C-alpha cells in the first residue's frame, strides 16, 4: 500500500467548509474601474499583462481554456456613459460598452446594416452580454463589427495615458487578435463618418450562431441601377478583415455583376485551411457570399 | 386496469424538473480530496519522466498496483485482446492525446487543476499512426453464411461502393463524475456516479482491489445521459475508488468537457467496401463487405463488439441468401473506441442503404420498390441467419417489414413530404428525399433480476438492475409493476442501479432495460400478486380461485365488501402473523429472474426531406419521419422521446460531428466550437409513427427495445436525401456530409 503525506480528514475538516472553488482560469487579480481615467490608471499600474473585462464573451471562454492568461482583469462594466448609439453630423457614434443586443434593436437611418448584421453574432445570451467595443478590441477576423468598421471606414477612438486618439479601422486590425490599441489604452467609442444605406453583411457557418467560416460585407452607392462606388470587405479569409480590390463603378446593379464580383473577390484571396474549412472551400464561399452580400446591399 | 400503454407523466420529472436530481457532482463528503488527471499531450511516445511539483500529491503508474488493466466486458468471437488493454495510468508508453499518465490530489478542485498544470511530463516522441490502414491490427474476423462466390458468379448486376463513416461519439449533457468514500461503520467502499453497468463495474473493481464484492456499494444516481459511453469502466473508475480505499479519504473527480472529448469512448470510424449481387430483376443474391475499423489506441470494455455488430446486422431486414463480411480492427494513436447508441447499426445501415440507392439507379428500379422487393416478408419470419452476435444467434423474431415501409411512405405523403419536394424543385431548389430501412436489435440477456416488495402502507418498491440515464425507465418499470398488480402506478417507487438493493442487475444498455429489465419486474410482480392472492385466501377463508383483484383490492368474486387490500396482505405477512406458516418467509416480496437466449429485433423506416444550398453546400433537413416497430409501447410518449433524441444525435453524425486529428495525432475537436453538436436550429421537425404490429414472442410483455431506432438510419437517410437532391449517380462516399463535402460534390459530381 502506498503512503502519502496527506492530512487525515479529521485534521482538516475543521478549518475548511465544503465550499469548493469552481472556477477554471489560471490565477488572476480582479479590479473594478468606475470611469475611463480610472481604467487607464489601473492598466498602467497593473502592467501589460492586464486586460480589460467588458462583456467577457470571448475573453472569459479563452481564460477558461487557459489559452488567455491575463495577470489581472479591469472590469469596466460599471462605467457610465459608454452605452449609446448617437447620430452625429451625418454619422453615428457607438459607445464601447453598447451591447450587441442594443445595436440589434436600435434602427438608425442609413445604418440599418448594423442592426441587421447583429443577428449573426453568436446567440441571444451572447448578444445581451457582449459589447461593441469588446468585439473590436478582441479583433477576431470573422467578427461582424470588425468587418463593418472596415467596410464603413469607421474610426476607433482610443483613450490612454497619452490622451485620446482616433485610428482608422482600416489600420486598426493587425492580425490574429492583434490591434493598434496599446496595452494601456481603452476603446471608448467607434465613429462611423457617414451613412451607408446600401450595405449588407452575410456569412456562413455550419450551425447557427457559430463563428463565420467566411463572412462577406458590401457597400454600394447607387444611382438608379448604376453603381457609383463599391466596397467589399471579407472575414475568415486571412488574419484580419480583408478589403477586396474590386471596383464596380459604372456597372449595372444586377445578378451578373454580383456573380462576377464574387468570382473576382474569390480570385484575390488565399484563405487558410482549418477544421472548419479548407482554403479552397473558403474561396468558393467567398464567391457565393460576396454575390449575396452585394445583392442584399443593392436591394 | 392496465397501466401499460398509458402516456403516464414521468415519475422522474418531479425531482428532475425541480433541480432535485442527484447527479455525480451533487455528492460531497467532508474532507474529500479532489482528483485531477494529468493527460498525455502527445499521441505516441516513450514516457521518460514525470516531475512532481513541490508539495503536490502526484500519483503515477509506479504507485498503482502493477499490471492493472481495464478488462473487456463482452468477449465475442473467441478473440483475445489481452495485449491491447488500457492500463489505468500509462507506464512506459503513451498512445493517444488525453491518455491518463498521472493524477494530482488536492483539497480543492481549482488547486488540483493548477497543480496538474505544473506536472511536467517528459515524453520521447515515437512515430504516430493516424490513418486506420496504417494501424496495428488487433483482430480480424469474418461472419457470414451461404455461398457468396456463387451468388456473385451468377449475378446479372454487381454494385460496389466505398463508404466511410467519420469518428464521432456520444456527448452526454453531464460529463462523468465519481465520488468514493469508505464507510467507517461497514468498512465498505461507497461509490457515487457509476451508471449503466454498476454490478459489472463493482465486480471488476473488487477483482482489481482484491476485495470482496460486497465491500463495494455502488449507489443509485441520476445521470445526464449515457448513450453508450457513460458508465463503462474507464481508468478513473479504478483510480478514484482505489485512492479512497488506499488513503481512507473521500476522493472526488469531475470531468470537464475538454477532458470528456478526448477521454470517453469515441466511436463509428469505419471504412467499408461493400458489394451486392443482383439478378436481372433486382433480386438480391448476395452481399459482401470488407470493413476497416479504427479502434483508437486500445481495446476497452467493448472489445470488438462494434465491428462484430456491424457485420452481424449488415444484411438488415432484407432477404440476403448469401453474406460474407470481413473486418479488420486496427489500433491507431487516437482515443480508444466503444459503443455509441446504435453501435454498428448506424455504420452498417448507412453503408447498406447507400448501396441500395446506388443499385436502384443502376438497375433502373425505384429505390422504394427495390427495397420492398428484397425485404423479408412476415411469412418468412422467424428467420435465422447462421451467424452469432454478442454471443447470441441471429434469429429475426417477428414483424412485417414491407408493411411498415408501405405505412411510412403513406404517412410521409400524407404529411406533405412529397408535395413539398415537388414545390421546392419547381422553385429551383436542390431538394431531395431520402428513404432508409433498417433492422435494430434489443433485449440482450442473458438475464435481469428484479425485486418487488409491498409495504404495510400499500406502497410498492421495485429494485431493478437497470440504471436511470434520463430515459424514463423508472416510469416504465412502475407501469409494468402496476399492470401486474392491478394498482395505481403512483404508489410504485423504482430504484435502479444500487448494487446492494439489486446485486444481480445487468444494467441499462443495448436497448435492454424495458425488454429484459421490464420482463424481470413483470415476473417478480406476478409472483407478488400470486402470493397476495394466496395470503388473501387464508385471510378471507375462501379458495384462491374465488378471488379476483380489482383496483388494488383482492376480493371474493361476486361478494363486494369482502376484500383485503395489498396493505392488509402486507401486514398479514409480518413476522408473528397468524396467517404465516411456520417456515414461510415474512414479507410480501419476490425476487425473480428473467433469462433470455435471443435478442428481439425491432425495425424501422426513416424518411427525410432536405434542401441543399448549392452555393455553400449547407444542408437543411426540413422534415424527418421515423416509423418504428416496438412490439408494444409501455408508454408511447417515452418511446417517441427516445426516437426524437435519436434523430437529433443522428443529424449530428450525418452532417456535423467529427473527431478529426492532424498528422501528429493532435485532436482537432476538443471544444464545442470545433465539435459541432446540432443545436435546436439544426434539428429538423420530426414526425413519429410508433407501430405496435409485431409483438416480440420472446418476452412476456411483447416489447422490443426503443432506445436506438431514432438514430440507426439517420446517416443513411440523410446521405440518401443529399444524393437525391444533387442527382448523384454514385455514392456520397462519406459521413459526416459537412457543407464543404457537399459543396465539393456539387462541383465534382459522381
TrEMBL record, chain B:
Residues 18-127 form the Aldehyde oxidase/xanthine dehydrogenase a/b hammerhead domain. It comes from the Bacteria. Pfam families: Ald_Xan_dh_C, MoCoBD_1, MoCoBD_2. The keyword Thylakoid does not apply. Keywords: Molybdenum, Oxidoreductase. This is Carbon monoxide dehydrogenase large chain. The keyword Oxidoreductase applies. InterPro entries: Ald_Oxase/Xan_DH_a/b, Ald_Oxase/Xan_DH_a/b_sf, Ald_Oxase/xanthine_DH-like, AldOxase/xan_DH_MoCoBD1, AldOxase/xan_DH_MoCoBD2, AldOxase/xan_DH_Mopterin-bd_sf. It comes from Kibdelosporangium persicum.
Amino acid at each position: 500500500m502506498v503512503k502519502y503525506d496527506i492530512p487525515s480528514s479529521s485534521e482538516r475538516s475543521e478549518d475548511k467548509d465544503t465550499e469548493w472553488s469552481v472556477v477554471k482560469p489560471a490565477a488572476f487579480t480582479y479590479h473594478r474601474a468606475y470611469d475611463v481615467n480610472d481604467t487607464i490608471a489601473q492598466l498602467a499600474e497593473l502592467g501589460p499583462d492586464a486586460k480589460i473585462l467588458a462583456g467577457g464573451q470571448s475573453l472569459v471562454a479563452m481564460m477558461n481554456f487557459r489559452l488567455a492568461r491575463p495577470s489581472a482583469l479591469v472590469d469596466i462594466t460599471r462605467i457610465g456613459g459608454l452605452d449609446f448609439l448617437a447620430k452625429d453630423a451625418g454619422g453615428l457614434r457607438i459607445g464601447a460598452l453598447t451591447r450587441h443586443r442594443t445595436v440589434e434593436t436600435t434602427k438608425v437611418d442609413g445604418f440599418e446594416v448594423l442592426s441587421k448584421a447583429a443577428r449573426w453574432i453568436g446567440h441571444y445570451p451572447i448578444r445581451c452580454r457582449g459589447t461593441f467595443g469588446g468585439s473590436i478590441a478582441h479583433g477576431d477576423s470573422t467578427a461582424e463589427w470588425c468587418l463593418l468598421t472596415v467596410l464603413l471606414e469607421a474610426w476607433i477612438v482610443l483613450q490612454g495615458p497619452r490622451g485620446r486618439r482616433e485610428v482608422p479601422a482600416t489600420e486598426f486590425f493587425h492580425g490574429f487578435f492583434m490591434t493598434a490599441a496599446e496595452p494601456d489604452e481603452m476603446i471608448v467609442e467607434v465613429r462611423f463618418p457617414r451613412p451607408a444605406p446600401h450595405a449588407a453583411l452575410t456569412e456562413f457557418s455550419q450551425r447557427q450562431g457559430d463563428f463565420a467560416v467566411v463572412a462577406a460585407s458590401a457597400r454600394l452607392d447607387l444611382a438608379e441601377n448604376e453603381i457609383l462606388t463599391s466596397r467589399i470587405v471579407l472575414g475568415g479569409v486571412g488574419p484580419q478583415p480583408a478589403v477586396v480590390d474590386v471596383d464596380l463603378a459604372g456597372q449595372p446593379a444586377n445578378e451578373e455583376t454580383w456573380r462576377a464580383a464574387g468570382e473576382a473577390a474569390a480570385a484575390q484571396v488565399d484563405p487558410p485551411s482549418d477544421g472548419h474549412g479548407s482554403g479552397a472551400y473558403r474561396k468558393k464561399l467567398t464567391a457565393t457570399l460576396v454575390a449575396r452580400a452585394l445583392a442584399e446591399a443593392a436591394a | 386496469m392496465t397501466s401499460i400503454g398509458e402516456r403516464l407523466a414521468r415519475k422522474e420529472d418531479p425531482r428532475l424538473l425541480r433541480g432535485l436530481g442527484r447527479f455525480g457532482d451533487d455528492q460531497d463528503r467532508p474532507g474529500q480530496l479532489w482528483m485531477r488527471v494529468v493527460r498525455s499531450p502527445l499521441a505516441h511516445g516513450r514516457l521518460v519522466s514525470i516531475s512532481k511539483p513541490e508539495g503536490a500529491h502526484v500519483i503515477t503508474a509506479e504507485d498503482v498496483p502493477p499490471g492493472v488493466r481495464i478488462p473487456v466486458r463482452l468477449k465475442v468471437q473467441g478473440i483475445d485482446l489481452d495485449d491491447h488493454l488500457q492500463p489505468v495510468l500509462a507506464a512506459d508508453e503513451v498512445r493517444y492525446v488525453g491518455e491518463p499518465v498521472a493524477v494530482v490530489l488536492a483539497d480543492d478542485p481549482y488547486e488540483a487543476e493548477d497543480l496538474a498544470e505544473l506536472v511536467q511530463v517528459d515524453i520521447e516522441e515515437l512515430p504516430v499512426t493516424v490513418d486506420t490502414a496504417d494501424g496495428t491490427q488487433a483482430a480480424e474476423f469474418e461472419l457470414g453464411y451461404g455461398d457468396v462466390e456463387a451468388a456473385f458468379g451468377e449475378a446479372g448486376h454487381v454494385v460496389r461502393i466505398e463508404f466511410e463513416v467519420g469518428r464521432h461519439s456520444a456527448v452526454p449533457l453531464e460529463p462523468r463524475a465519481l465520488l468514493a468514500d469508505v464507510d467507517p461503520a461497514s468498512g465498505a467502499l461507497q461509490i457515487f456516479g457509476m451508471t449503466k453497468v454498476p454490478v459489472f463495474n463493482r465486480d471488476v473493481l473488487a477483482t482489481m482491489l482484491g476485495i470482496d464484492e460486497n465491500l463495494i456499494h455502488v449507489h443509485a444516481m441520476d445521470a445526464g445521459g449515457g448513450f453508450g459511453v457513460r458508465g463503462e469502466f474507464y481508468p478513473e473508475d479504478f483510480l478514484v475508488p482505489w485512492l479512497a480505499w488506499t488513503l481512507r479519504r473521500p476522493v472526488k473527480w469531475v470531468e470537464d468537457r475538454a477532458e470528456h472529448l478526448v477521454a470517453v469512448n469515441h466511436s463509428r470510424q469505419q471504412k467499408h467496401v461493400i458489394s451486392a449481387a443482383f439478378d436481372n430483376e433486382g433480386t438480391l443474391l448476395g452481399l459482401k463487405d470488407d470493413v476497416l475499423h479504427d479502434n483508437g489506441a486500445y481495446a476497452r470494455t467493448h472489445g470488438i463488439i462494434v465491428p462484430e455488430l456491424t457485420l452481424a446486422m449488415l444484411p438488415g431486414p432484407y432477404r440476403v441468401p448469401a453474406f460474407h463480411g470481413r473486418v479488420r480492427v486496427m489500433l491507431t494513436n487516437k482515443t480508444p473506441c466503444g459503443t455509441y447508441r446504435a453501435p454498428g447499426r448506424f455504420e452498417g445501415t448507412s453503408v447498406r442503404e447507400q448501396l441500395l440507392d446506388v443499385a436502384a439507379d443502376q438497375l433502373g428500379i425505384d429505390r422504394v420498390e427495390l427495397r420492398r422487393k428484397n425485404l423479408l416478408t412476415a411469412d418468412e419470419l422467424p428467420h435465422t441467419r447462421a451467424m452469432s452476435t454478442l454471443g447470441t444467434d441471429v434469429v429475426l423474431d417477428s414483424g412485417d417489414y414491407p408493411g411498415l415501409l408501405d405505412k411510412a411512405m403513406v404517412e410521409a405523403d400524407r404529411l406533405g413530404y412529397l408535395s413539398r419536394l415537388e414545390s421546392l424543385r419547381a422553385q429551383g431548389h436542390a431538394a431531395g428525399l431520402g428513404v432508409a430501412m433498417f433492422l435494430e436489435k434489443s433485449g440482450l440477456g442473458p438475464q435481469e433480476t428484479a425485486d418487488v416488495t409491498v409495504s404495510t402502507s400499500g406502497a410498492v418498491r421495485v429494485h431493478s438492475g437497470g440504471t436511470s440515464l434520463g430515459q424514463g425507465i423508472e416510469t416504465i418499470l412502475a407501469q409494468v409493476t402496476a399492470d401486474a398488480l392491478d394498482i395505481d402506478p403512483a404508489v410504485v417507487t423504482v430504484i435502479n442501479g444500487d448494487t446492494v438493493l439489486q446485486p444481480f442487475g445487468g444494467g441499462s444498455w443495448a436497448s435492454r432495460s424495458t425488454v429484459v429489465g421490464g420482463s424481470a419486474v413483470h415476473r417478480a410482480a406476478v409472483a407478488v400478486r400470486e402470493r397476495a392472492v394466496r395470503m388473501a385466501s387464508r385471510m378471507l377463508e375462501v379458495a384462491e380461485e374465488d378471488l379476483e383483484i380489482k383496483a388494488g383490492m383482492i376480493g371474493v368474486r361476486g361478494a363486494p365488501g369482502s376484500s383485503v387490500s395489498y396493505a392488509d396482505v402486507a401486514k398479514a405477512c409480518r413476522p408473528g402473523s397468524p396467517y404465516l406458516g411456520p417456515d414461510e418467509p415474512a414479507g410480501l416480496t419476490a425476487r425473480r429472474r428473467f433469462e433470455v437466449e435471443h435478442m428481439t429485433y425491432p425495425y424501422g423506416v426513416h424518411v427525410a426531406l432536405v434542401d441543399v444550398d448549392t452555393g455553400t453546400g449547407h444542408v437543411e433537413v426540413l422534415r424527418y419521419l421515423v416509423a418504428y416497430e416496438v412490439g408494444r409501447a409501455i408508454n408511447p410518449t417515452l418511446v417517441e422521446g427516445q426516437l426524437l433524441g435519436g434523430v437529433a444525435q443522428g443529424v449530428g453524425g450525418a452532417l456535423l460531428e467529427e473527431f478529426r486529428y492532424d498528422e501528429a495525432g493532435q485532436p482537432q475537436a476538443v471544444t464545442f466550437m470545433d465539435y459541432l453538436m446540432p443545436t435546436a436550429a439544426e434539428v429538423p421537425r420530426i414526425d413519429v409513427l410508433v407501430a405496435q404490429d409485431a409483438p416480440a414472442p420472446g418476452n412476456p410483455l411483447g416489447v422490443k427495445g426503443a432506445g436506438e431506432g431514432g438514430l440507426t438510419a439517420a446517416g443513411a437517410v440523410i446521405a440518401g436525401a443529399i444524393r437525391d437532391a444533387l442527382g448523384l449517380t454514385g455514392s456520397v462516399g462519406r459521413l459526416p456530409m459537412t457543407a464543404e463535402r457537399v459543396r465539393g460534390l456539387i462541383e465534382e459530381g459522381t
